[in-house]
């Protein structure tokens, strides 16, 4: 299962899973606008793909989606890949007050970048809703069904690491905070499932620096090692499929390296 499969990493997961001969449940906000996904699903030589609607920003949509999944007569979902995410850049911490604009002018004079405004209350809330709350609730609702779930993969980011804080990422404050919150929530989810003796594995993945529409922003620092969605997903699948309940509640990179929280 892949959520937000209409573009980028999610779409590539569907393509590669079908090429392996897997049966895929792919979700989009609106199936009538998923022409590329319909094309991939319709021309696959192997596997099968069913499209379902799910808006992770809406609890009612998530509930309806899970009810639709229950109607599919599925006993087990081997992998749930929760890759829905947004980056509304820039989303810096400082507000756009006059005093901060004065600071900005000083930075503009002596540095090659300016402090960017934290857009709004809604901007921060949007990041949390899409990057944290939505994916967690999707996993929660699926795990509360009678369907057996093998592994749940949350698409995180190195930006969300507290141990490896990336202070140079100007304009990523809300995004980083939402990924850090996601990391803590999934760790608690994994711990709770362990206490219950569950066979479900919970993982966080850093996909690397991937060339997607979301990442197509002008930054004040150089991003190294940019890769295609094809290379990132191929590498992540090699990592995901090797993890068991012994690794539940852990954070991995596309290279198969454990990432610090």
Descriptive key words:
7 helices; four-stranded parallel β-sheet; alpha/beta; 261 residues; single chain
Produce a short descriptive summary.
With 261 residues, the chain is α/β, with parallel strands linked by helices.
Secondary structure elements and their pairing?
Elements: H1 8-19, E1 23-28, H2 35-43, E2 48-53, H3 59-70, E3 76-82, H4 98-110, H5 121-143, E4 148-155, H6 173-195, E5 201-206, H7 229-240, E6 250-253
Structural class: alpha/beta
Mean pLDDT: 83
Number of helical segments with 4 or more residues? 7
Give the percentage of residues in beta strands: 5-15%
Tell me the Rg in angstroms.
19 Å
SSE arrangement, N to C: HEHEHEHHEHEHE
Residues in helix, %:
25-40%
Specify the biggest β-sheet.
4 strands, parallel
What gross morphology would you assign? globular
How far from one another are the termini?
A: 26 Å
Number of strands: 6
Order the strands across the largest sheet as they lie in space: 3-4-5-6
**Which runs of at least 5 residues are low in confidence (pLDDT < 50)?**
96-104, 109-117
């Amino acid at each position: 299962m892949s959520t937000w499969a209409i573009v980028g990493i999610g779409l590539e997961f569907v393509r590669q899973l079908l090429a392996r001969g897997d049966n895929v449940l792919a979700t989009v906000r609106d199936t009538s606008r998923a022409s590329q996904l319909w094309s991939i699903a319709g021309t696959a030589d192997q596997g099968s793909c069913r499209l379902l609607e799910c808006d992770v920003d809406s609890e009612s949509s998530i509930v309806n989606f899970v009810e639709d999944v229950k109607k599919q007569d599925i006993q087990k979902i081997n992998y749930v890949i929760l890759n829905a995410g947004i980056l509304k850049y820039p989303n810096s911490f400082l507000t756009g007050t006059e005093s901060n604009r004065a600071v900005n002018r000083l930075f503009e004079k002596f540095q090659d970048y300016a402090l960017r405004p934290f857009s709004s209350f809604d901007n921060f809330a949007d990041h949390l809703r899409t990057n944290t709350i939505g994916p967690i609730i999707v996993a929660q609702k699926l795990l509360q069904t009678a369907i057996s779930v093998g592994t749940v993969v949350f698409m995180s980011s190195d930006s969300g690491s507290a141990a490896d804080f990336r202070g140079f990422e100007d304009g990523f404050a809300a995004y980083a905070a939402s990924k850090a919150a996601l990391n803590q929530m999934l760790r608690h989810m994994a711990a709770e499932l362990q206490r219950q003796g569950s066979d479900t594995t919970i993982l966080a993945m850093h996909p690397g620096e991937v060339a997607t529409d979301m990442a197509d922003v002008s930054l004040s620092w150089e991003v190294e090692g940019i890769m295609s969605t094809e290379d990132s997903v191929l590498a992540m699948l090699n990592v995901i499929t090797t993890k068991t309940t012994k690794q539940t509640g852990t954070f991995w990179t596309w290279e198969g390296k454990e990432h610090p929280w």
